[in-house]
Each structure stands twice: as C-alpha cells, then as structure tokens.
Specification:
This protein is α/β, with parallel strands linked by helices and about 600 residues long. Helices cover about 30% and strands about 15% of the residues. The protein is built from 19 helices and 20 strands. It has helices at about 1-30, 50, 65-70, 85-90, 90-95, 145-155, 220, 265-270, 285-300, 315-330, 350-360, 370-380, 385-390, 400-405, 420-425, 430-450, 480-485, 505-520, 520-525; strands spanning about 45, 100-105, 110, 115, 120-125, 130-135, 160-165, 175, 235, 305, 340, 410, 450-455, 525-530, 540-545, 550-560, 565-570, 580, 595-600, 605. The strands form six sheets. It has a seven-stranded parallel β-sheet. A five-stranded antiparallel β-sheet has the order 14-15-16-20-18. Strands 3-6 form a two-stranded antiparallel sheet.
Length: about 600
C-alpha cells in the first residue's frame, strides 16, 4: 500500500511539474530562461538546512564530536538539522509543480558552525555567519553539489538566486575592553580614528582623513594602520586564520566600534548583534567582495543575488559593487541578473525603501512595506486605504512605478514569521477555516498585485509557527524539534512527517495563482492603477493593463467578513469581461463603471476583451 501511494504521489508531482513547465514556457514565448525579465519570476525562498536531507553523510559538516563542535542537533531549533543541496535538487519536481520559476537559497557559504556565549550557543544553519566566502558549507554538501543543483534547475528553466552577505562575517574578533562581548557602540566623534581609545588618547593613524565619500581612496586608507581607535580588537587563539580569503582575518578591515543600536551612525558602523562589521568604505574591502561574488557568478552562473543587511552598508559600496556584478553577469551570458537588497522595516514606508534605490542605486529592494500593508489589512483590521498608501509610493523608487514591478514582494519570511502566525496573533481564538482563507487572500494579493512574488517555503504546506526567526524555520522533512512537532499546520496534521504534499489545499491554491500569473502578462509586467479603497476593511480594487495589447484586468479583494456589492471605475472602453477567478459580470453597468460582488475574504480577477 505504501509503495503504491508513493508511486501515485510521484506521478502526481510529475504531472503538476509538466503543467507548470508548460505555463512557464508560454509565459515568455522563448526557450531560453535567461531571456525572462525579473518581473516575470515566481520566487521560492528556502533554507537548505530545513528543506530536505539528500545526503545524511554531511549532517555534521565533516566534523566529529558533540553539537557544540559540529553544530548538528536535529532536535534543537537553533542547530543544523541535516538539509542540504542534494535535498533541494531531489525536490525540484515539487518546486516546479508549485509554479516557481526561481529558487532563492539562503546563504550556502561556509559558516562558523557554532557561536555564542556559554549556555547561549546556536549554529550557523541559516548561513549568515560566514567564515569562508569561497566555498559551500560542508553541512550543505560541496561546490560540485551546488553546480549540479544549478545545472539541474537551469535544465528545467528555473533560475537560482544566491543570498549574499557583505556587511559582516561570523563573530570572531573580540575586544579586550569587554571580554563578555557586550560592547556598547563607540561613535566616531567620541572615538576618532586618529586617537587611541578616545579623544584624549595617543595620536594614531596620522594623516587619515576619515571615511566619508570624498576620502574613500586607497591612498587615504593606507594611512589607517591601527584598528584600536575605539576598542582593542584581537583574534582568539586558534582562529587567527579562520576566514577565507585571508585578508578577512586582518582587524584593520573592520569597524571595531561595538554593537549597533540600529540607530544613527551605529546602523552602518556597529556590529550586527556582535557579528564582525566590515569597513565597506575601504576600497580594499570593496574590491575584495567584487572578486569574491564575481567568482560565484563566473563559476556557477547563478541568476541573481539577494543582499542581506543591505541598509547597514554605506551607499558608496553599492554604487561600485552593483555595476561590477551586473557586468560580470553580462560577461557570463546572464543579461537579466536580478539584484535585490534587504532593507528591513515593519512599517508601510515605501519612502524608506525607495531611498536605497536612489542613494545606494540598488536595482531593487525586498518590499517590506508590502508585507506590512498586507499584514495590517488581511491579518489585522486596518482599512484598505493602507494598501493604497503603499502603492501611491511607487513613484518614489528610482525608475518610478515601472521599477516597482521588479520589487520582490512577500507576506512571510524567515526573520519576522509566517503570515498564518500573524493572523493568529492578531485574532486570538480564530478558527483554522478563517485563518486559511486569510492566508489564501494574502497570497492572492501577492500573486496579482505589482511586484515579484516570493513564496516562503512551507507556507504552501500550512506552516504557521509561533513567532519569527527560529520559530519560523520548520523542517520540511520529518522534524525532531519538539516545538515544531507540537504545531498544528493549517489544513494538515501535526507530527513527524514529510511535508511535500502536492495535494495540500494551500499548495494547490498557490500553484493555481502561479498559473494565473504566468498566463497573464498584465499580472507580471502590467501597469497598475488604484481604483477603490476605504478607511475600513472591505473593498480594494486595482486595474492592471496588458503591456502588449492594453487589455484591462480588474482585480478586486474583500478584506472583510461580510459580503459586499459595489461599483468600481474601469476604462470607459473596457467591456466583454471574462472571469479568470471568481464571478465576473460580462458587461459594465455603464461605460467606465463596473459591478463588483464579493463574498467574505474573497477576490476576483476579471479580464476585459481587447479593444481596438
């Protein structure tokens, strides 16, 4: 019985994959996946350690000993669990059948296996504590495993994005003044580069003119020879040569000013939760990272970079780094290399995000404002005018509303948590049926409104979690973490089991949305126009326009728990509507006015006929 069910499931996965692949090719009208624009993608974001274990032999990363040596403890949510790149490759059918056209991998570079003070240790399973920037973390496999994964994905027309870090490395450097590592931030005014340990200290670094944009030259930084202006940094015994490339082991290439408060200058110059903060103003550091990540493009032909902690790096760094990466990509035959930075915020503040596309010249940023707006209106009880305010800010991005089409949008992520968690937190005691409908509505917004949808792995299996960070990083394979096992997934069953069910209602809902998006150019690259919104939960309507024939799509959402009937503006010439989702009237009530009827927490997509 088990073998027959397994074979049936495998056939089902292959069928879904074939359908998704056909939609993918029809979407672009070309056999070469590299011709797709960033706006055409559906991105699937996963943490390799938590996705699938394809090779148990690498679970301990080639080390031996207990979890504080190897980092491996599948029963603890803060340690490695065994997922790897071979596991991702083994599940490409599953990813493709969901409708994903690009995979965003959390960092795969070699990490410090374990760090933290005694009793507070955790592992680098997430990938953001890098020590060796030149090779794959042995917990995830080998460079050859990554090469095989990228080749296999490309063979299916699926792109692969790497998550990269330039702001910091693992926590290796220590300061003699604070052996407990709780080192408060010391500012440039109180602890200038030219005095040791404060303004009354001995003169050092004679002739150094500072780190502002005008002085970010090799000649000036050659005068910065001592790193002990704020603290006295040193490398612990046995870790003097831990980082690769070797230049990363020199404390002169770090700010060494103590922990960031995430306010003022410390946001750029402070250590991110104790991680060694790189002096990205130094031209040697800039060139070093151009060389490091340029090599990953050339060696593996990946298709894009998500940039971690981008807002904590000075603008001048990005102004040099981004053009260099795009040039390396073009030289490697990758014309549509997608670069997007992390500018984290919990506010509906598009101006904050847009500033990094103008000042830093980042091509795109993750749309945290979108996530905040959807959480407030669909998980919470805010009026739909919040969504209108979000999209009214599109003009602020470098390139305006057209550039906003390439902003990766999301409703769940690995740091803040999953959308189902936000629903349950905002609405204590809510039933699973309504939670499921709100999650589906949020994903309908993600796939039909402007931007590049990013699906966080596990959402399609009903994962909810109990918070952010470790509480939102569940295993897709049979977990051994007690808190994960105790969770009740939406439309699923708790316990230790594989979570790759293509029949799950959320999986099927997201796959359907992906097919809808790939079939309609208006949903990928079409101009978006606000139509209806209000100060309370209820109607939100936009129109999107086919970039080729101008056809109008009316997309309406009901964020309330009551049915509604309303009229919304449309183009005066739009008529002969057909339903792409939900019930759509064939004709407007009058030229320029279209009737909308929606049930609670529902949506519709109505396509007008092409007018000549």
């Amino acid at each position: 019985m088990g073998q027959r069910a397994s074979r049936a499931t495998a056939r089902c996965v292959r069928l879904w994959a074939a359908v998704a692949a056909a939609a993918l090719w029809s979407m672009v009208g070309a056999a070469d996946y590299r011709e797709r624009l960033a706006a055409d993608e559906v991105v699937y974001f996963l943490l390799p350690d938590r996705f699938e274990n394809g090779d148990p032999a690498n679970d301990q990363g080639g080390a031996s000993g207990g979890r504080l040596v190897t980092g491996y403890d599948p029963g603890a949510k803060g340690f490695y669990h065994g997922g790897d790149l071979r596991g991702v490759a083994a599940r490409l059918d599953y990813i493709q059948s969901l409708g994903a056209s690009a995979i965003w991998l959390a960092p795969v570079f070699t990490n410090k296996p374990v760090q933290g003070e005694p009793g507070r240790e955790s592992a680098g399973y997430h990938g953001y504590w890098i020590t060796d920037f030149t090779r794959v973390d042995p917990h995830f496999g080998t460079d050859a495993d990554l090469r095989r994964l990228v080749d296999a994905a490309h063979g299916r027309g699926i792109k692969v994005y790497l998550d990269i870090v330039t702001n910091h490395t693992a926590d290796v450097i220590r300061y003699r003044e604070c052996p407990t590592r709780d080192c408060p931030y010391r500012s440039r005014a109180d602890y200038p580069y030219t005095r040791r340990g404060g303004i009354h200290g001995e003169p050092i670094n004679e002739g150094f003119q500072g780190d502002d944009a005008a002085h970010q030259t090799a000649e000036n930084f050659a005068r910065l020879t001592r790193p002990d202006y704020a603290y006295t940094p040193y490398l612990p015994p046995g870790e003097e040569h831990l980082k690769v490339p070797a230049w990363l082991n020199d404390p002169i290439y770090y700010h060494n000013r103590g922990n960031s408060t995430f306010a003022g200058e410390s946001s750029t110059f402070g250590d991110f939760y104790g991680l060694d903060d790189l002096m990205t103003e130094n031209p040697r550091v800039v060139q070093g990272f151009i060389d490091i990540y340029g090599a990953w493009i050339e060696r593996f032909h990946v298709d894009g970079f998500r940039i971690d902690t981008a807002k904590h790096v000075n603008a001048e760094f990005w102004q040099r780094f981004v053009p260099a990466m795009l040039e390396r990509a073009r030289a490697a035959g990758i014309p549509n290399f997608h670069i997007f930075g992390e500018v984290s915020t919990g506010e509906v503040d598009p101006a904050l995000l847009a500033a990094h596309t103008r000042n830093d010249r980042l091509p795109a940023v993750l749309d945290f404002a979108f996530a905040a707006a959807v959480r407030r209106t669909v998980a919470g009880a805010a009026g739909t005018e919040v969504l209108a305010r979000l999209f009214e800010g599109d003009a602020l991005y470098e390139g305006g509303a057209a550039a906003a089409l390439e902003l990766p949008t999301f409703v769940s992520n690995h740091d803040e948590g999953r959308f189902a968690y936000f629903v349950r937190r905002a609405r204590p005691g809510i039933g699973d049926a309504e939670t499921l409908r709100r999650v589906q509505l949020a994903y309908a917004m993600l796939f039909t409104l402007r931007g590049v949808p990013v699906v966080y792995y596990g959402d399609e299996q009903g994962f909810a979690g109990s918070g952010g960070d470790q509480d939102a990083r569940q295993d897709m394979f049979a977990s051994r973490v007690p808190s994960y096992l105790a969770e009740q997934p939406l439309a699923g069953v708790a316990g230790a089991r594989s979570r790759f069910d293509v029949r799950h209602p959320l999986y099927q809902a997201l796959a359907g949305l992906a097919r809808l998006r790939t079939s309609q150019a208006a949903l990928r690259r079409g101009r978006q126009l606000l139509r209806s919104y209000g100060p309370v939960p209820g109607l939100f309507v936009v129109s999107r326009f086919d970039p080729d024939d101008g056809r109008e799509l009316v997309i309406a959402f009901n964020t309330s728990t009551a049915s509604l009937s309303a009229q919304t503006l449309v183009e005066a010439g739009s008529r002969d509507f057909s339903a792409l989702h939900g019930h759509c009237e064939a004709q407007p009530s009058a030229p320029g006015s279209y009737p909308i009827e929606l049930g609670p927490l529902d949506y519709l997509v109505c396509a007008a006929a092409v007018t000549r």
